[in-house]
Amino acid sequence: MGLKQDYKLKVSNVAVYTNLAVKLKSRTTKEEANKEVERMLDKKKLFDGYKWEIEECEEGGINQFNDKLRDDIIERVGQEETEENIFWDGIKAHFELNVAHIFVETNLEVQLKSQNVEEAISEVNKLCAGKKIFEGYEWKISGCSEQGINAFDDQLQDAIINGISQQGKIEDCIEEVSS
After folding, report:
1. Comparing C-alpha atoms, which of 155, 66, 145, 51 is closest to residue 105?
2. What string of pLDDT tens digits covers the 179 residues of the chain?
3. In sequence order, what are the residues at sequence separation of 6 or more whose Cβ sits closer than 8 angstroms to the Cβ of residue 113?
4. In whole angstroms, what is the distance from residue 43 CA to residue 22 CA?
5. 34-58 core/surface letters (b: 16 or more CB in 10 A; e: else)
6. Chain center to CA of 64
7. Across-strand partners of 82?
8. Which residues share a beta bridge with 97?
9. How far is Cα of residue 15 from the mean position of the Cα atoms in its chain?
């Protein structure tokens, strides 16, 4: 029996609301971790020496680290008590800072229903033209074990459709996956 061919639509550099996590250097107490986060925020040195990633993403998932992302994180963490965002990961034996609902530029993907490339191109054209790209499709952040997207709205839909058109030909956005 031969392998069945599946197709995914991949769209690069789309801004979505998602949750972020960063492993802290503090390993002894939550108080120490809290002080570390406060120093990071005060000095605005969030990305120096830290590996930020979208929660549940093995490859990080964040395409762009810039001043806007830094300021958004600082604002979000500042809305609550810092220690409410710090968690001990007993499996990996470290503290982690989690920041919810941050606007991040990342790559998205969705499994298509088509059986060949021509059908996949037609399917993507119909999705974009009908502006119903979320109905019956499970979009997720590329490289993430879970969906990772917090808000499916018209703004995200327009950003995805715009991203597809900016990538050139539709077939450049379609990836064949053997299963």
Report:
1. 66
2. 445 569 999 999 999 999 999 999 988 888 999 999 999 999 999 999 999 999 989 888 999 999 999 999 999 998 877 777 888 876 666 899 999 999 999 999 999 999 899 999 999 999 999 998 999 999 999 988 888 999 999 999 999 999 998 887 899 999 998 75
3. 123
4. 17
5. bebbeebbeeeebbeeeebbbbbbe
6. 11
7. none
8. 22, 86
9. 9
Instruction: Quickly count: other Cβ atoms within 10 Å of residue 61's Cβ.
Output: 23
Give percent helix, percent strand, percent coil of the chain, each to the nearest 5. 35, 30, 35
Q: Which residues pair with 5 in a beta bridge?
A: 178
DSSP letter (8 states) at residue 98: E
pTM above 0.70, yes or no: yes
Residue corresponding to tokens 């990772």: 148
CA triple 3-5-10, angle to 5 deg: 145
Rg of the chain taking only CA atoms, in angstroms: 19
Structure-block tokens of residue 77: 């963490």
Best CA proximity match to 103, nearest among 167, 153, 38, 59:
153
Per-residue CA distances from 28 to 21, 39, 91, 99 (Å): 19, 17, 15, 21
Type of residue at 42: D
**Residue spans of beta strands (DSSP E) within 31-120:** 52-54, 86-89, 94-111
Distance CA 136, CA 117 (A): 20
